[in-house]
Amino acid sequence: MQSLKDKIDGLARALGKKADGQQDYTDYKTLRKQYEEQANAEVKQAQQVSKSQRISTLHGRSDLNPKWTFGNLIEDSDDVIEAVSIAHSFIAAHEDLNWRNAGSHMMIFYGDYGRGKSHIAGAIAHQLIDQYEITVLYRQLSTLLELRYSSYDFGAQDKVGQKFREANQELLDVDLLILDEVCVNETMLKKNTQSWLGNLLRQRLVNKKNCILITNHNLAELEMALGRYCFESIKEYDTYKVRFAGPSRRKGLVADEAEQPAQSPAYQPNQLR
């Protein structure tokens, strides 16, 4: 004998209505599609999080100034406008894997202080990291040379030799190396320094790694400062030369005429008692 609930459920089915507590029926094909879409969405989200973390790590290891972006750049002179155009072309070329694998590319930014050379180089690097996850390293040449010279102190207790070897390997491995202040205040590098830098550039050339060199010298002065061996290494690259000749964008330290100098006590040397 049917229970009251069974009779009500039977009547509901007869009327084409869903019985109390009965779930909508979903066929296997539809259900599988729903699960696959959900799984793909979760995988895509995980990939985006992973990519965001990788990009953040690349930015952190690059030592780039976070303010060096195209958004912060003021295009107020012809040289900067031209440099930005070349920079965007260089970035866009990375879309072509054949271009990437064809050889090594070098950009030389040269001109006086404060013209925006480092800013544009940094903007290029930031965008390459964001778009293509390119590994980037920004270094001032003088800082590397100081570390290199210190590595010759075999009696040092701070493992400076090992630190330089690790730094040098990083210079060889990174996809884009930005060397700033190249030969700053130097009319000519020492011979052994010319050889080291020339060998570094040649090894990067063989491994199809790209470089940006930033200098205050003109090209003739740069050739003399680097020496023939090192400069010949540069010539082997597919080279883009960008000259910066506009006004300086750095604010001067000008004292307010109305500002009165602070009165400070005269210097008193330490006294032995």
From TrEMBL:
Record keywords: ATP-binding, Nucleotide-binding
The keyword Transit peptide is annotated on this UniProt entry: no
Transmembrane segments: none
SUPFAM superfamilies assigned: P-loop containing nucleoside triphosphate hydrolases
Ranges for domain IstB-like ATP-binding: 90-227
Ranges where the record places region Disordered: 253-273
GO molecular function ontology, one term from the record: ATP binding
The name this protein goes by in its record: ATP-binding protein
Organism the protein comes from: Alteromonas ponticola
